[in-house]
Amino acid sequence: IAAAGLAQEVLCSFDTLRVAGETTQSGLVVVSPPAPFPGATVSVSCFAAGDSRPLAVATFSYTPALSIASLSLGVVSELGSSALAVRGSGFVAAADTVCGFFARGQ
Q1: Does 72 map to a domain?
Q2: From which domain of life does this come (predicted)?
């Protein structure tokens, strides 16, 4: 959902379970509720608070939870960047998979 004109309070329904969304400068962040069963695909509808017309409707497919077995930090370069190796199972090979690392409180 594009951020422009987004209501401050947005609720998203994962089938019959409603959760609050958080609006940001670039869009909407919603934490999905637990899967009703492994591999479930559910309908998601997002509504501005008090509005019965959905802002957006989509399907959402749950994937198995990933399990991290180990983390290892590579050599830190002179520029300040470093490589982080994450090993485990359940990773999804998809172009839209994104990892974000933030300081607490951001």
Answers
A1: no
A2: Eukaryota
Q: By the 8 A CB rule, do 36 and 42 touch?
A: yes
Please state the pTM of the whole predicted model. Answer: 0.54
Please measure the distance between the N-terminal and C-terminal CA atoms of the chain and give it in whole angstroms: 21
Instruction: Tell whether 36 is covered by a domain.
Output: yes
| Chain centroid to CA 65 | 13
Rounded CA-CA distance 31/34 in Å is 9
Average predicted confidence (pLDDT) for the chain: 79
Range of the domain at 49: 9-61
Report the C-alpha gap between 51 and 11 in whole angstroms: 10
